[in-house]
Amino acid sequence: MKIELLTTFLEVSQTLHVRVAAENLYLTQAAISSRIKQLEEELGVQLFDRTQKRLKLTAEGHRLIKHANEMIIMWQKLKQDVGVSQTNAYQLFVGSMMSIWDIVLQDWLQKIHRNLDDVHLYTHTYSPLELRKQVISRVIDIAFLFEPPFIEDIISEKVAIVPLQLVSTEKGISTTEIKNMIMVDYGESVNSQILRDFSDNTQMRHNMSQPRIALNFILEASGCAYLPKQMCFEPIRKGTLHPVEDAPEYKRDIYAIYLAKSNKADLIQDALMLFPYVRH
């Protein structure tokens, strides 16, 4: 099976549109359709339901996404290990929970780009359980999550402490008056605290995986949510969001995990030193 077939499948699975996938991959629509057909023939299954106006993944297509991502990562790592890569760059495979990307990792990736010129980044999103598995199996080099595992072969290092505050589109309200509260996924320990503190008089209207999604949602539809303080500075300054003054504050620790015997331990340490918390 050719890697480009899997790359094409992943692009179509994200866009669910042959024309958009073709534009993103700089291919013709006919080439995209041909690759998907070839992949379906090799696997002996149908990956997309084409009976509707818009493409829809089949159950087999959904199952392939995880394996396709892993195979592409392993192929990229293989190229580096056997010297097929055309550059001398070090490859760093980074995995994270979805909600952590917006909180601290966007700035960190920019710092790697500016300070570690010889590093080629690959980023992927996984569940906490998958992150642990991928680190142990050496599919990814470093992972970020809220609750680190206690596993002998894995090193856990705190890289950030993120204060969370309750903000609302309505000015001057108290915790007893809040409506349309959005629950953001910050990991089990913080989630349980929030639910316990607000269970008496507040019903969570929606649950969202990323702070950025929750921020955009409440700015558009109104409501409130616990968001990282650094994400709230500008909306509060502009008056589009307001702190709920009597609300309890929480903090969320973020950890990096990697294999103790990783052959990239020095590179990982250099990358982690770009977090202000680690430097101090």
TrEMBL record:
Residues 1-58 form the HTH lysR-type domain. InterPro entries: LysR_HTH_N, LysR_subst-bd, WH-like_DNA-bd_sf, WH_DNA-bd_sf. Keywords: DNA-binding, Transcription, Transcription regulation. GO terms for molecular function: DNA-binding transcription factor activity; transcription cis-regulatory region binding. It comes from the Bacteria. Pfam families: HTH_1, LysR_substrate. Signal peptide: none annotated. Belongs to the LysR transcriptional regulatory family. This is LysR family transcriptional regulator.
